[in-house]
Amino acid sequence: xxxxxxxxxxxxxxxxxxxxxxxxxxxxxxxxxxxxxxxxxxxxxxxxxxxxxxxxxxxxxxxxxxxxxxxxxxxxxxxxxxxxxxxxxxxxxxxxxxxxxxxxxxxxxxxxxxxxxxxxxxxxxxxxxxxxxxxxxxxxxxxxxxxxxxxxxxxxxxxxxxxxxxxxxxxxxxxxxxxxxxxxxxxxxxxxxxxxxxxxxxxxxxxxxxxxxxxxxxxxxxxxxxxxxxxxxxxxxxxxxxxxxxxxxxxxxxxxxxxxxxxxxxxxxxxxxxxxxxxxxxxxxxxxxxxxxxxxxxxxxxxxxxxxxxxxxxxxxxxxxxxxxxxxxxxxxxxxxxxxxxxxxxxxxxxxxxxxxxxxxxxxxxxxxxxxxxxxxxxxxxxxxxxxxxxxxxxxxxxxxxxxxxxxxxxxxxxxxxxxxxxx
Length: 424
Fold this sequence. Notes:
- By secondary structure, the chain is of the alpha/beta class.
- It has two domains: 20-54 and 346-415, no CATH class; 64-342, Alpha-Beta Barrel (TIM Barrel).
- 22% of the residues lie in helices and 29% in strands.
- It is built from eight helices and 22 strands.
- The strands form three sheets. Strands 1, 2, 3, 16, 17, 18, 19, 20, 21 and 22 form a ten-stranded mixed β-sheet that branches. Strands 4-5-6-7-8-9-10-13 form an eight-stranded parallel beta barrel, surrounded by four helices.
- A hairpin with a 2-residue loop joins strand 17 (355-358) and strand 18.
- Helix 3 (134-144) packs parallel to helix 4.
């Protein structure tokens, strides 16, 4: 799997004050450029372009599938059409939860087919005592293949509610993928983890050959002070940088609370702002997120003691309006790309390390070459010392590095040339 296996994925840029650029003796290359900064360099988000990326099953070349879960929202009668009507846009994916060995939801699948929706089914263990039942696995796979319509199967997602060990989990996941390939090749396999389990999730990853998509569930519940704990993009970035170059990414469960029964406080405006921010930022800055499923349910209604959070976007006018406007962008897709089955596509991969612009020249950091591209021999490239850190100018002296700037959104894109291709 190609990903950044490092704990710290951000680097701080030093801003300094006026300066000159002059050649200096090189220890590591044909030339070293000494940069004495007295003007602040500009920071640009850095992406690199992978022109040989193989699309996964049902992965769209561009954009992100809209999805929703409505089967716990009685106020809209658990109705997919009603949710689309209220939000004024068709959603491509709708979610259903079931356990391995449960009766197959034939009527719900038929409803999806009639409405031209793609089923997204979360498949969890039958019980915690015997989670790995191979007989139930084969039976369930045959049921998934009987209609032979496109589906996404979120198989055994990692969450705080399960108690898996890495090796038996991976063995069973790989077994499941092979069984589904035999009996239900229409099903794309999603491997996902909750935000609580993300930090230790890599030890459970079954491997690229056994997955089609990689997912993350994010719940933004209100705390005792009536706010959200931390920034959602801190968790999202760790996941994104770890897996973006391997597979398409999907937010399998996204939920933002606007009311908590714990403190009996409404947070309508903050919830609306947060929903707008998440969808807008994903559409602009996270090209590898190819799907988002919003969890439209009120947790208070599902709680035995009437405690929980209301995550719906369909109930409250201001929150619904924020969601409706956020998803109205063309970036968010209303139907599945059924033609995507391994085509080669150009994809943008986002680096955690920014590019900088100084005196009309762009520079990329040593960390980009070491961690994004896995390059170990950098001796042939011209270097620049910027406040004690080593950078590489994107100039004719470094023919391996070519790129283009998008000034409107402060983005610099490295283009593919001979040595500049990510290493496995």
